[in-house]
Amino acid sequence: MGRDTLKPASRTLVFNKPYGVLPCFTDPKGRPTLADYVAIPGVYAAGRLDLDSEGLLVLTSDGTLAHRITDPRHQLPKVYLAQVERMPNDEALGRLRQGILLKGTRTRPAEVHVLSAVPELPDRPVPIRFRKSVPTAWLKITLREGLNRQVRRMTAAVGHPTVRLVRIAIGTMVLGDLQPGHWRELTRSEIARISAAESAG
Question: Strand pairing partners for 134?
Fold first, then answer.
């Protein structure tokens, strides 16, 4: 045997990305980034969560795990709470569930449920623009792919633009009571469950 070549242990975090924060560590325009909240070297975002979206973002130094999370072939479910303009009717909900054609690409079927009550979420630092003449509804949407701005594009395509979007789960990883701007490290058993859930699916 030669010199000890053991790699440092990988690290994986679940972060509650606040509204208005870029899902990267640097920005030439000086906007808020992950570096303002996470001081762990070597981790990077596994997937994206847009500047104007909130919620669960996985940061990891494990390339294999990042691929498992982001590659649509693994079909890891991603769960969102979407506040949309107006109450969607059965036709709109059916289109979302069947898949929407977005610039020549049809999305995979999605699980979509109308919530009967407003979910308990932390206040957003920049309130959504309320219009008295336009009521809103909350949807729980589960996707098994990750096209760019997919939820927003899908709901807009059926006439119900999204005004607030919060991701609450990726596979077995859940946001829980983690507050915006805070993170926690995943345990080995939690990481193992991601692989187990994929194998079972």
Answer: 131
Active site includes 62? no
Rounded to two decimals, the pTM is 0.90
Q: DSSP assignment, residue 1?
A: -
CATH for 12-72+176-189 (3.30.930.10, 3.30.70.580, 3.30.450.20, 3.10.20.310)? 3.30.70.580
Which of the following is catalytic: 4, 36, 50, 52? 50
pLDDT digit string (tens) for 2-22? 444 545 678 899 999 999 999
38: DSSP letter:
-
DSSP 29-57: T----GGGT---TT-EESS---TT-EEEE
88-132 residue pLDDT tens: 999 999 999 999 998 888 999 999 999 999 999 998 888 777 676
Q: Which of 178, 185, 177, 146 is nearest to 50 (CA)?
A: 146
CB-CB contact of 131 with 72 (8 Å): no
138: Cα within 13 Å, side-chain hemisphere: 14
